[in-house]
């Protein structure tokens, strides 16, 4: 789908996925301490052998469009659920599991860290999908109701510009 962006005037082929390299909790650790305190790969993170996070996808539907706006986010998991996920990484027969959204970005001016989530596991090598808990937060409203393509591009430009 080619699209002339109202934000930058350029033609884009598709929306980028907006991602975070690690959970915010791990981002706050100094470079001197990170190797001793953080175990991180593309999908999993453990801080201080105690705080567990999984990488997942939070999708926002786009009106009249089959694609959604995807956020590659990290969500916390209690240790037992994290271990269940490790043991059953490639199955959809677990969960959903509760977690806290663990990345800070502003969505319509509101912070996102610690929004309540449910991680729905998909198996087949796919990352879990994140469903936000019902609230009046604009990110939840966008996930529930969807957004326009213009709004999706505005959000993408805000995120990529930081």
Description:
- With 162 residues, the chain is an alpha+beta fold.
- It has one domain (3-160).
- 25% of the residues lie in helices and 31% in strands.
- The chain is built from 5 helices and 12 strands.
- It has helices at residues 24-27, 31-37, 79-87, 138-145, 149-160, and strands spanning 3-4, 11-12, 18-19, 38-40, 44-47, 51-61, 68-77, 97-100, 106-107, 110-111, 116-120, 129-132.
- It has a 5-stranded mixed beta sheet.
- It is globular.
- The two termini are 25 Å apart.
- The model has no long low-confidence stretch (mean pLDDT 89).
What's the quick description here?
With 162 residues, the chain is α+β, with helices and mostly antiparallel strands. The protein has helices at 24-27, 31-37, 79-87, 138-145, 149-160, and strands spanning 3-4, 11-12, 18-19, 38-40, 44-47, 51-61, 68-77, 97-100, 106-107, 110-111, 116-120, 129-132.
Task: Describe the secondary structure blueprint for this structure.
Blueprint: E1 3-4, E2 11-12, E3 18-19, H1 24-27, H2 31-37, E4 38-40, E5 44-47, E6 51-61, E7 68-77, H3 79-87, E8 97-100, E9 106-107, E10 110-111, E11 116-120, E12 129-132, H4 138-145, H5 149-160
Parallel strand pairs: 3-7
Antiparallel strand pairs: 1-2, 4-5, 5-6, 6-7, 8-11, 9-10, 11-12
